[in-house]
UniProtKB/TrEMBL annotation:
InterPro entries reported in the protein's UniProt record: cNMP-bd_dom, cNMP-bd_dom_sf, RmlC-like_jellyroll
Organism of derivation: Sphingobacterium puteale
Superkingdom field: Bacteria
Record protein name field: Crp/Fnr family transcriptional regulator
Residue span, Cyclic nucleotide-binding domain: 31-114
Pfam family, one: cNMP_binding
Entries under CDD domains matching the protein: CAP_ED (cd00038)
Length: 188
């Protein structure tokens, strides 16, 4: 739980009472590599902070598994559209590596909003983190070539290259695995 406390301490000084309320509502969840954190069709009940591991956002298809996002240590993860609306998710959240998450339920987060001085700040920071990653992702898909997306990914998230199967990386940057192999040969 130290990582999530350090994350918030780097952003704002939380009063001990506020931290006590917030931390008492967190539950630790451990997921093994390749296990589903949330299955498509189920409702997201938690906003989670990744203490350890990498999470993949994907839409499973019969012929092709589409990866559209990753979340890493010291960041928030959620099927946020499902979490906000409390309706079924249209995608999976999958642990790519062994993961340790600190989770707060929808109802408990609402309680934190109402009962602490920094509750809304906590929610806003989580939302901002998720939103900024989404916007950056959409912009790169529209603006950059597949090669540029891969090079930027290697520079910004080198842990991806070592911890995530190439077929997921290829899907994430919007190409087939064979095309990614050509790009990798070209730049090495």
């Amino acid at each position: 739980m130290d990582k999530i406390k350090n994350y918030f301490d780097s952003l704002i000084k939380m009063e001990a009472g506020d931290w006590d309320i917030f931390s008492s509502m967190l539950s630790k969840a451990v997921f093994s590599k390749r296990s589903l954190i949330l299955e498509m069709g189920k409702t997201e009940r938690y906003l989670s902070f990744i203490e350890k591991g990498i999470v993949r956002f994907n839409i499973p298809k019969l012929d092709y598994d589409f990866t559209f996002g990753f979340a890493f240590e010291n960041s928030f993860v959620s099927a946020y559209d499902s979490f906000l609306t409390q309706t079924a998710s249209s995608y999976n959240l999958e642990a790519i590596t062994d993961c340790v998450l600190w989770r707060i339920s929808y109802d408990d987060l609402d309680t934190v909003y109402k009962t602490t001085q920094v509750g809304n700040f906590i929610g806003r920071k989580a939302i901002e983190d998720i939103f900024l990653k989404k916007m950056k992702r959409e912009f790169t898909l529209l603006e950059d070539s597949a090669k540029t997306r891969y090079v930027n990914l290697m520079r910004e998230q080198p842990e991806l290259i070592n911890n995530i199967p190439l077929k997921y990386l290829a899907s994430y940057i919007g190409i087939r695995p064979q095309s990614l192999s050509r790009i990798r040969k070209e730049i090495s």
